[in-house]
């Protein structure tokens, strides 16, 4: 018996509506109770107004006959007063709903965003951010995929529930006239609601399934409308192309939905004919009994208004459609949380060996002391058609700089993402001082790696925060900050900012400013150097001078040895004037390291490096090749 009872309870608990309401209750129990009170008002007030009006109508003949000062007249006045009060309260429903909706939305948006940020930042790597299912879920919870804001779900559910209860109450009132009439109306509305609800669900689920083309359509829309991309779209005259592509993806995503809806629409039309018959029978019964004086004017007036009022049991409107779209975000949010957050738990469980080797338990402080060894490493991107590395072997000596050289797409950036454990090798292993990298605590290892990526991030924060990334407060090491800026060639740049270190590096904020590409690159370099001064032991510079002017680039070369002194560094560059200063140079070609040695040694080998170096040098010396 208990298990039979627990089944519907469990089903109810797992329903998306209940989960959305529970989310609101977890945000603010008081707000959830207020929404509950709104549901009651929504269910009761319209019917109370109609009933009071009907009863007042029924008292008019007696009051007209006996006069307003008679007992019948007083009774009419009381009924009118009750109707007026109910009507007055029902007028307040609209503004109350608006105010409550905006509060619920604001609280829900903050909660949803916090849960998304927590989930997405949980894994140590970045592979999940390239998984199309995860991206669809992210877009959906943000309301971008379905163009419906999940934060509005609780209030929409409340309003829908209120309407449904109001219709049910009308059916109950109808049953006081003829028991079967209320029941018949209820059954008829439920009968029409089912296929209508199915129609809405089909449309929404195929809309959701069309995530890929719709995400593309949104992306194209963003390209056309966001300032950064719009610049390029204007210059290259992409407007018409973007509009056409946007339409193509949107239509291709939705065409299957439209076909299915047409089919289900025909079924709904059939059921609607049956409902109309029940409605006509009910109205006819009422008319017949009134004609034969079996009921008075008051009952007739009440019951006639209850007939259309019962309709809200079966009505399915645009709101239901939007609610269904909002609710698709509920399982998506849970799936993101369930799949990503445990990865953080595994990563953070330093003492928990059950977390597996990938979590890593060894404290990497001060490592590498001897070397980092790539041993028979292979790697292929998820969904990729070929290996980026098939059998890569490379030793990075601790405290030395190693330059990585190779043609575009050779895998240089990929190699450093493996070193930073943003991804794991498909085969083979990386050893740090002889220990598998996977055994080191991944978050602590990542803190030890200071990187200047090719596409470093431009944070809309102050210059100081951009360098220190000290967002949780705590003391900033001023001396280290100044030294990092000086080594990165950013001192003059900071001095010339309107508020110095306190200037926000984004024109989108008051008092903020923007920097040029080269100036940003110096800030990114200073960020990595500050991290080194705070204990990072591995420095990765991916094209550190790509955006620097000639003088800044020359200054960087002069400081290169000073910058990389004592740290294990990898520099990736197509500029051989940078590369040649590294202690050792590794040439990456077709998934292997094909040459390894100092600049002089590799020139002497007269292989790929020598060829690339002399070709580039020749371009600067007007064709005269030199060593
Ligand atoms: N996120 C990704 N998903 C799938 N393939 C990728 C991804 N990133 C890079 N690749 C592919 O992996 C290969 C190596 O790319 P990588 O960026 O490591 O090359 P690179 O040597 O740094 O090139 P460049 O000199 O142009 O910066 C390329 O063929 C590239 O197309």
TrEMBL record:
Pfam families the record matches: ABC_tran
Stored InterPro entries: AAA+_ATPase, ABC1_TM_sf, ABC_transporter-like_ATP-bd, ABC_transporter-like_CS, P-loop_NTPase, Type_1_exporter
Topology class, membrane: Multi-pass membrane protein
SUPFAM superfamilies linked to this entry: ABC transporter transmembrane region, P-loop containing nucleoside triphosphate hydrolases
Stretches that traverse the bilayer: 30-51, 72-92, 164-192, 268-289, 295-316
Keyword annotations: ATP-binding, Membrane, Nucleotide-binding, Transmembrane, Transmembrane helix
Superkingdom of the source species: Bacteria
Location of the ABC transporter domain: 372-615
A GO CC term attached to the entry: plasma membrane
Primary localisation category: membrane
Annotated localization: Cell membrane
Tagged with keyword ATP-binding: yes
Gene Ontology MF: a single term: ATP binding
Keyword Zinc in annotation: no
Protein name: ABC transporter related
Organism this protein belongs to: Catenulispora acidiphila (strain DSM 44928 / JCM 14897 / NBRC 102108 / NRRL B-24433 / ID139908)
């Amino acid at each position: 018996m208990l298990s039979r009872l627990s089944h519907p309870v469990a089903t109810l608990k797992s329903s998306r509506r209940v989960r959305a309401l529970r989310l609101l209750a977890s945000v603010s129990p008081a707000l959830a109770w207020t929404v509950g009170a709104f549901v009651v008002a929504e269910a009761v007030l319209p019917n109370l107004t109609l009933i009071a009006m009907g009863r007042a109508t029924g008292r008019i003949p007696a009051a007209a006959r006996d006069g307003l000062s008679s007992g019948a007249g007083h009774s009419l006045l009381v009924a009118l007063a009750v109707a007026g009060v109910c009507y007055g309260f029902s007028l307040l429903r609209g503004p109350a709903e608006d105010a409550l909706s905006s509060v619920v939305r604001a609280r829900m948006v903050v909660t949803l965003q916090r849960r998304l940020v927590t989930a997405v930042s949980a894994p140590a790597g970045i592979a999940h951010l390239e998984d199309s299912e995860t991206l669809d879920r992210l877009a959906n919870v943000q309301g971008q995929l379905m163009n419906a804001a999940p934060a509005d779900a609780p209030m929409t559910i409340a309003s829908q529930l209120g309407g449904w209860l109001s219709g049910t109450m009308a059916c109950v009132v109808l049953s006081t006239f003829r028991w079967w009439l209320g029941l018949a109306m209820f059954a008829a509305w439920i009968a029409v609601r089912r296929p209508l609800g199915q129609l809405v669900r089909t449309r929404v689920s195929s809309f959701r399934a069309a995530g890929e083309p719709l995400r593309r359509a949104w992306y194209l829309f963003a390209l056309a409308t966001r300032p950064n991309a719009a610049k390029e779209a204007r210059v290259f005259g992409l407007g018409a192309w973007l509009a056409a592509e946007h339409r193509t993806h949107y239509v291709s995503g939705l065409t299957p939905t439209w076909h299915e809806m047409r089919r289900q629409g025909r079924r709904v039309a059939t059921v609607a004919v049956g409902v109309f018959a029940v409605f006509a029978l009910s109205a006819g019964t009422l008319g017949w009994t009134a004609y034969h004086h079996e009921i008075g004017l008051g009952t007739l007036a009440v019951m006639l208004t209850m007939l259309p009022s019962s309709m809200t049991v079966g009505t399915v409107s645009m709101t239901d459609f939007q609610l269904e779209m909002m609710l698709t975000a509920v399982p998506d949010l849970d799936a993101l949380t369930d799949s990503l957050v445990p990865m953080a738990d595994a990563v953070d469980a330093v003492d928990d060996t059950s977390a597996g080797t990938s979590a890593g338990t060894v404290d990497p402080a001060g490592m590498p002391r001897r070397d980092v060894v790539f041993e028979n490493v292979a790697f292929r991107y998820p969904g990729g058609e070929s290996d980026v590395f098939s059998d890569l072997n490379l030793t990075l000596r601790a405290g030395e700089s190693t330059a990585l050289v190779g043609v575009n797409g050779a895998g240089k950036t990929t190699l450093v993402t493996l070193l930073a454990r943003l991804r794991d090798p498909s085969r083979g292993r990386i050893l740090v001082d002889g220990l598998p990298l996977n055994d080191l605590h991944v978050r602590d290892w990542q803190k030890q790696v200071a990187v200047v990526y090719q596409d470093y991030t431009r944070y809309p924060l102050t210059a100081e925060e951009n360098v220190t990334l000290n967002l949780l407060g705590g003391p900033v090491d001023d001396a280290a900050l100044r030294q990092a800026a000086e080594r990165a060639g950013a001192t003059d740049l900071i001095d010339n900012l309107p508020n110095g270190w306190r200037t926000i590096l984004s024109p989108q904020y008051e008092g903020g400013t923007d920097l040029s590409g080269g100036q940003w690159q110096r800030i990114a370099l200073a960020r990595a150097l500050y991290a080194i001064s705070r204990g990072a032991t591995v420095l990765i510079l991916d094209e550190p001078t790509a955006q620097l002017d000639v003088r800044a680039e020359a200054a960087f070369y002069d400081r290169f040895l000073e910058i990389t002194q004592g740290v294990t560094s990898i520099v990736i560059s197509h500029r051989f004037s940078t590369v040649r200063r590294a202690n050792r140079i590794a040439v990456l070609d077709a998934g292997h390291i094909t040459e390894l040695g100092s600049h002089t040694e590799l020139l002497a080998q007269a292989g790929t490096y020598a060829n690339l170096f002399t070709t580039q040098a020749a371009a600067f010396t007007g064709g005269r090749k030199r060593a």
